[in-house]
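Here we describe the complex-level prediction in full. Unlike the single-chain runs in Section 2.1, the four entities below were treated as one system.
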Amino acid sequence: MTAVYDEMNAKTREKIQQQFLQLLKDKNFMKVSVQDIATAANINRGTFYLHYLDKYDLLDQMEENLLAGLEMHLELLQPDFLLSEAAKGHTSNHAVEVFRYIQLNADAFQVFLGSNNHVGFHKRLKLFFVEHFLEKMMKNENFFKGATVPHDYLSSFATSAFLGLVEQWLDNELVETPTEMAEMYIQIIFFIRNL
Amino acid sequence: MTAVYDEMNAKTREKIQQQFLQLLKDKNFMKVSVQDIATAANINRGTFYLHYLDKYDLLDQMEENLLAGLEMHLELLQPDFLLSEAAKGHTSNHAVEVFRYIQLNADAFQVFLGSNNHVGFHKRLKLFFVEHFLEKMMKNENFFKGATVPHDYLSSFATSAFLGLVEQWLDNELVETPTEMAEMYIQIIFFIRNL
DNA sequence: ATTCCACTAAACACACTGTTCAGTGGTATA
DNA sequence: TATACCACTGAACAGTGTGTTTAGTGGAAT
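The structure predicted for the assembly as a whole is:
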């Protein structure tokens, strides 16, 4: 049975990731050394290199995981359905779930999007949203009808605005509920529609 | 006469800044060493430290200069005047000037906002815009009338959307003219107004 | 019993850091 | 013309972090 070893590996990796996140709350990414991480996680520095290529690899994998989780929730979102529901006064559960996921991983989002750090999670997140936005919108031909602004500018505008909303929420220590955030999001979708 | 020495200093600083920007087009900020900069600028590594504390200081000063230049143009912007002009079918020259400034310094904006880099110019730029937006909007009491979204979310939304527009422009290698960009900007202002 | 595996501890060469210090050559000043 | 000034050079310095390697430990699987 190899499951025991798998679990050992998983536990050390989790310890490393968790402690790394804690360190990033105080220190700049560049000023966090592998030794710092090892000490915080109570492991040998060499052990770190048995699990990750370097600290960039660690960061990259953590960001990747975060985005993968987000993707699952985002796939369920259907903007046209969202709008028809909103017109009836309902708030789509799928939209709420997206914000709930962000709430659940607020620590990571705050750290990765924070000004202390780092190499470009914002850009990565934006690209991620742009792709989803365009993909969904392209399926709905009516959406771009009457748009007086090029599509790429429209999507960059829309996703940046959405991201701005999320960033403000994170900066506000998430005092609003996911439902309240979802309602704001719907309002924004309506504006864009009137473009 | 000390002007000769001032000019010497200015020239080396400019050489350093110019070569640093070139290096950042290819390499990550963290992977650019002081030695790399010195070699590219054809100076001794020690000379670098006669002008800057370290490479963070260099980056910081360059960002600061860029924002200072932007501020001059942004101060002239009067959103209410912009809107009344736009209603008459005119595009405010001041708005065009802002985009012209960005066009003029496209290299720096592209590098500092690029995903290769770095520590948070995006955040800095956004904060800069938020402050200007709020300052201008607060003077115009009518602007927030009927807003169904909290002011901080509104400003974060608006400035992120504007920044998204600029980022898209930079990603598109600035194929649009500053005037075209200013017109898009005016359209966005109109949307927000209808919030 | 022995092979396997995650992990440790220590050492390695290397790169980059920021500082120092004696020296060079052009520029301004008296 | 002498000399004081100034930006800059070249070389050395200790310090810190890097990624890799090596021999060894102890528990789990076969």
